[in-house]
């Protein structure tokens, strides 16, 4: 089954939602998709970082889509201790699997492996979850690099996992060796490719291939055009504080963003909504989505907003020239609400030497001018706020039955406009070429052009269903489709897709009942008993 057929046959619902704050809840704040829950299988651990491969893909999937110790066989370090990761043969992601498993069919059995990073993948605190994902990704890459110094890495992230991958790739790309030639994570020369689907740190005007010789056509070293011409996606990422280039990894990046996916294509001048995003990154969105506005969730929101307000007044108090400056109170709120904000990190702007001495004039004298600037600033920086809110941003990004633009990457081919492959197919073909070069011990060839046979092999049915053969499973594994969290914003149809089968451990997949009242099926739980699975109610 090809990637397009995979998406067409399996209706996969999202459970991501945006926080209900400041009266503009369902916006770009938290539109990171969720895939079905972790696969429940035998917990015997067999795979180790000491089983070296020419190339390993580090995969970080989206919200709710992560291996969990006790439910998934975890990767072991060189001393036999479990790492926060699982081989792709032991864990399956409905969205990411077709991409990261594509090289399996094109190289020798032991040459390539894909690993899924375990991390919270929730929104009890978005920032904490992403930071944990970054730490886990870095630790797994370090362990593999120490055990297998010749291994090359590719990194793939989607949705919430895309934020993790951007931050890891940024750190790796800007790292420098110490006096002993060691790097904080891995040598950036050993990272041959990075794929980011729905890049929340994307800058306005960025092409898909950041830092490449042709940022709109292809990454360096892969002479297969993604699209004809220069067609930048409008807008920018919802988390501009994570933006930037990738240093030594520039040219090895594929950052895909679909028009209409407000996680990576948010319009300019929506500062109130950006403030909502920053608040949403610090509150328990999972609880707010699940329980609605209760005393507990309301307190969580109030405490977070109170902390932001206190930080704003403290920031202003530390700038004696604030009344004379052009900085508005909304500017201050946006600055201090960013989870990365550090008080005192940015010195106050210098006062114009030609102006009247601050000591000689009361700050109140600037009040009329300051009020005027506040009003103008509020209007100018929110020109697109109302249009975005009126466009139903939740459904635009995460429409029911994966109809939103957050899922375009598996269906966005358009041969008539010079885009023959979907973003996922293109990424699969690129990773396949990188794996072949790694197997042959070749440096990245900037002139290589994949043959039609190579592309066909990368996108063949085996590319999706074959997993790493380095993992040995002696008993069949039974997968339990995850349920989705009820959405408080937009109704969705909850259906679990078929789980990719492993060639080493045939998986038996059962689907839970759909929202149609006449359909009932049985789904196994993580215990040996069998129960009837009913999708979570949708409000």
TrEMBL record:
<dbReference type="GO" id="GO:0052689">
    <property type="term" value="F:carboxylic ester hydrolase activity"/>
</dbReference>
<comment type="similarity">
    <text>Belongs to the cutinase family.</text>
</comment>
<dbReference type="InterPro" id="IPR000675">
    <property type="entry name" value="Cutinase/axe"/>
</dbReference>
<feature type="region of interest" description="Disordered">
    <location>
        <begin position="220"/>
        <end position="239"/>
    </location>
</feature>
<feature type="compositionally biased region" description="Low complexity">
    <location>
        <begin position="456"/>
        <end position="539"/>
    </location>
</feature>
<keyword id="KW-1015">Disulfide bond</keyword>
<dbReference type="Pfam" id="PF01083">
    <property type="entry name" value="Cutinase"/>
</dbReference>
<feature type="region of interest" description="Disordered">
    <location>
        <begin position="441"/>
        <end position="539"/>
    </location>
</feature>
<keyword id="KW-0719">Serine esterase</keyword>
<protein>
    <submittedName>
        <fullName>Cutinase family protein</fullName>
    </submittedName>
</protein>
<feature type="compositionally biased region" description="Polar residues">
    <location>
        <begin position="225"/>
        <end position="234"/>
    </location>
</feature>
<keyword id="KW-0812">Transmembrane</keyword>
<keyword id="KW-0378">Hydrolase</keyword>
<keyword id="KW-0472">Membrane</keyword>
<feature type="transmembrane region" description="Helical">
    <location>
        <begin position="12"/>
        <end position="34"/>
    </location>
</feature>
<keyword id="KW-1133">Transmembrane helix</keyword>
<dbReference type="InterPro" id="IPR029058">
    <property type="entry name" value="AB_hydrolase_fold"/>
</dbReference>
């Amino acid at each position: 089954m090809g990637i397009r057929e995979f998406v067409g046959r399996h209706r996969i619902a999202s459970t991501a939602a945006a926080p209900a704050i400041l009266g503009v809840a369902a916006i770009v704040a938290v539109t990171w998709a969720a895939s079905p829950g972790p696969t429940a299988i035998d917990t015997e651990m067999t795979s180790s970082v000491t089983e070296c491969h020419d190339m390993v893909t580090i995969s970080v999937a989206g919200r709710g889509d992560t291996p969990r110790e006790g439910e998934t066989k975890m990767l072991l370090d060189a001393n036999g201790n479990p790492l926060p990761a699982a081989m792709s043969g032991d864990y399956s992601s409905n969205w990411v699997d077709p991409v990261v498993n594509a090289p399996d069919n094109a190289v020798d059995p032991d040459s390539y492996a894909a690993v899924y990073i375990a991390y919270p993948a929730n929104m009890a605190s978005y920032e904490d979850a992403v930071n944990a994902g970054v730490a886990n990704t870095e630790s797994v890459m370090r362990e593999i690099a120490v055990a297998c110094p010749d291994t090359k890495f590719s990194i793939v992230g989607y949705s919430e996992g895309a934020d993790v991958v951007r931050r890891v790739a940024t750190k790796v790309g800007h790292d420098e060796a110490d006096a002993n030639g060691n790097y904080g994570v891995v040598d950036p020369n050993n990272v041959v490719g990075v794929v980011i689907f729905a890049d929340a740190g994307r800058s306005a005007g960025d092409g898909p291939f950041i830092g490449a010789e042709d940022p709109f056509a292809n990454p360096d070293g892969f002479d297969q055009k993604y699209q004809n011409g220069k067609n930048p996606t409008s807008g920018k990422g919802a988390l501009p504080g994570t933006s930037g280039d990738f240093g030594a990894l520039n040219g090895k990046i594929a950052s895909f963003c679909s028009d209409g996916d407000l996680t990576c294509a948010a319009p300019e001048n929506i500062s109130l909504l950006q403030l909502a995003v920053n608040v949403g990154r610090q509150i328990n969105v999972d609880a707010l989505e699940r329980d609605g506005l209760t005393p507990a969730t309301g307190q969580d929101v109030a405490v977070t907003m109170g902390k932001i307000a206190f930080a704003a007044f403290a920031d202003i108090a530390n700038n004696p020239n604030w009344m004379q400056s052009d900085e508005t109170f909304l500017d201050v709120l946006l600055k201090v609400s960013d989870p990365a904000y550090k008080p005192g990190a940015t010195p106050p702007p210098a006062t114009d030497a030609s102006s009247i001495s601050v000591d000689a004039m009361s700050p109140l004298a600037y009040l009329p001018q300051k009020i005027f600037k506040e009003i103008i600033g509020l209007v100018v920086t929110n020109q697109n706020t109302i249009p975005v809110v009126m466009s139903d941003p939740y459904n635009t990004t995460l429409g029911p039955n994966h109809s939103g633009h957050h899922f375009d990457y598996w269906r966005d081919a358009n041969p008539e406009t010079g885009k023959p492959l979907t973003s996922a197919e293109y990424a699969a073909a690129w990773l396949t070429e990188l794996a072949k070069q790694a197997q042959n011990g070749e440096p990245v060839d900037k002139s290589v052009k994949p043959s039609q046979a190579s592309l066909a092999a990368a996108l063949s049915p085996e590319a999706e269903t074959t997993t790493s053969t380095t993992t040995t499973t002696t008993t069949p594994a039974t997968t339990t489709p995850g349920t989705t969290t009820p959405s408080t914003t937009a109704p969705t149809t909850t259906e679990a897709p078929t789980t990719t089968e492993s060639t080493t451990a045939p998986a038996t997949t059962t689907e839970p009942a759909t929202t149609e009242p006449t359909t009932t099926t049985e789904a196994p739980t993580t215990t040996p008993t069998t129960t009837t699975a009913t999708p979570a109610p949708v409000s």
